[in-house]
């Protein structure tokens, strides 16, 4: 049980920090763009990378020096593109969040692909799941229970994040609040992109 609890606490502490992925998940979930699909993709990716880190950390570390520069610049480009989109929506304005709109603007497959991109092109995901969580898990007496606890943390966080979107949608029905929300989302993504720039 100690390894299970350690996995849950360590993973939750790293995942819960609001970053580009969480901001994107919240934004899409508020719009009603297949939040269940988003949660399922994020949980699956997190769990897979945690397993990779716990059971294959030494192999992954051998490839990290070659992968990090490419992933970093791809991540910077993606985050900047998403930030520009958020700022454009904030500038143009809207009638506020329409919860009774005709439906999602993208298909479930398209949203799943976007979720994969925002997750896998973010170098922080690899740092948190493969390197940090993986290194702690590899030292546990029961690595399998640690992985289970970490997966439970990921499930808890993303299900909570997507399910609370309903309350936020009522708050963001105001056009002014919605423009502020898009502005904050854009700033968050730019800050994360800036933090990825090489020194």
Descriptive overview:
There is one protein chain. The protein is mainly alpha-helical. It has one domain. Helices cover 81% and strands 0% of the residues. The chain is built from eight helices and no strands. The chain has helices at 2-15, 20-30, 35-92, 108-120, 123-138, 143-163, 165-171, 175-196.
SSE inventory with pairings:
Layout: H1 2-15, H2 20-30, H3 35-92, H4 108-120, H5 123-138, H6 143-163, H7 165-171, H8 175-196
**Helix-strand string:** HHHHHHHH
Whole-number count of domains: 1
Q: How would a crystallographer describe the biggest sheet?
A: none
Silhouette: globular
Count of helical regions? 8
Task: Report the end-to-end length measured between terminal Cα atoms.
Answer: 41 Å
Question: Helices and strands: which structural class?
Answer: mainly alpha
Helical content, roughly? over 70%
**Roughly what fraction of the amino acids lie in strands?**
under 5%
What is the number of E strands?
0
The average pLDDT is: 78
Weakly predicted, low-confidence segments: 98-103
Q: What is the quaternary state of this protein?
A: single chain
Rg, alpha carbons: 18 Å
Give a short summary of the structure:
The chain has 199 residues and is mainly alpha-helical. Helices cover 81% and strands 0% of the residues. The chain has one domain (2-196).
Give structural attributes:
mainly alpha; about 80% helix; about 0% strand
